[in-house]
Amino acid sequence: MHGRIKIKSTAQQEEEKRKEREKKLKIYVSARDTCFSKRKEGILDEEALQVTQQLLSSNPDFATLWNYRREILMHLETVKEKDEVQKIYEAELAFLESCLKLNPKSYGSWHHRCWVSARLPRPDWSRELSLCDRCLSLDDRNFHCWDYRRMVVKVSGVPVAQELGFTDRLIGSNFSNYSSWHYRSTLLPLLHPESPESPSPSHEPPQPSPSHSPQTQSHRVCEEQLLKEYELVQNAFFTDPNDQSAWFYYRWLLGRAEREEMISCVYVSRDEERVAVAFSRPVNAQSVSLLLVLDGQPQKVEWKSVHPRFKHSPVCICDLPPGTISDITNEHNLTVHWTEKYTHRDCALYTGRTESWCRDSATDQELFRSELSVEKTSVLQSELQSCNQLLELEPLNKWCLLTIVLLMRALDPLGYEKETLAHFQTLKEVDPMRSAYYSDLCSKFIIENTVLKMEYAEVRVFSITDKNLTTLCHLDQLLLVTHINLSSNQLQQLPPQFAMLQCLEVLEVDNNRIENLEGVYHLPKLEEVLLKNNKISALADLQPLASCPKLRRLDLRGNPVTQAANIESELTALLPSVTDLLL
Q1: Which stretches does the entry tag as region Disordered (predicted)?
Q2: pTM of the predicted model over 0.85
């Protein structure tokens, strides 16, 4: 391998090698048995330390021996003076260096070095940083060494700016150093954090929220530094457009900040006497600290997920006691408190209304794009122009194509919709092995754009037809949708998340590849399901529909299940509420 000429050995040479290996093995096994025997007898002396050293010198990945060695060292701490302990541990560090020379990626050696460094009476952290420098100069992607370096930096208090300078040097010498780019992404938010935004109106300022405590560190970078990083990473991918390290870092720079933990929507239905609450992130319905106050009186209710498959869900529901809000002549004021996060949301159910809601739109939440300053918009426009220039030189570069898509999403997702779809088609052609990934990502962006269009139009109808959708996402944003049309796509299932559509009345999914309806579960308002020309093959696949009490119309034409014997009578028994069954 690697240009070396293979030299054939004679039978005599092979026999000599075999005997030599057997001799070494006998010595190794004898030493190992000696160690096991000493440990069993509780012997923790320097002789045992020497025997373990002999074994670990040839096999540094023997975890049991490292454990025994630590037991010995902890015992010696109790019987030796502090200066002697210092010398013993310094000798241990020197021994570990020889083990790392044998195997620079030995889990046991690096773990033991962490342990020794933590117990050393007078540690020399500069020496440890120097060791890391040497190891990373030999292999700049040695993740064991990177982990150890982070520990040394944290314990010794190395300035963040100094470590950022270290990544500058490594990236400057090798743009392909992915580990350095990643390390840089952890340092920048510490040195140049994004300034905290003003609190949401739904927060109660007098109470200290844990999510806004001084210890909480932003994961985003201030805009001034962000603009500098764009220039650095652009130099990298223009130097080597096919190297993925800089492109991945660029995607991190374009990422949005974590969403604020909040109640994004409260929906109340008079007919079902049900309250649904949507959150900015999934929560555990069994343990989330929610307090429901109705007309000034706290209510004792049981919060649950919308689907039994979910332990965590961005939508939780509860049923009110019968007769609580059913009288249409009464007005009710409802407040949901998320006590753990010191946030709440109010909702009023007026006289004559059967339902009400209070919510933040996807635009208000900046869910799909961040609000850009004039300066950042200008810089991203310039970045997009540069990437387009690079694409002219490298028309089949998938990293460049994907980054252009992300830049367009950051700048104007609706304005660049046509160009984005065209780029996804090109991506599937130049990188066919990942075509399924690009199809799913394209589906995600199409759904985001449709949510935005629906909100701008202020309607409760969601329609995406003949767009080759392969997956569904952001279904928590469709909590209030009453009519959804996903016909003529490539969907294979309606996932459990579909149960978040608590207001859905009409479902159209004709001409897909749907095999099961797991997500059509306890949708209280669902009346009509159009499933023509799909792949429903068994009666059991339709079982979830039995949980929808108002279902009246079901179209199953063109599905394999319609060919089964006695299917009509079986469906009538399964779905007694359906009066219009099309087979």
Answers
A1: 194-218
A2: no
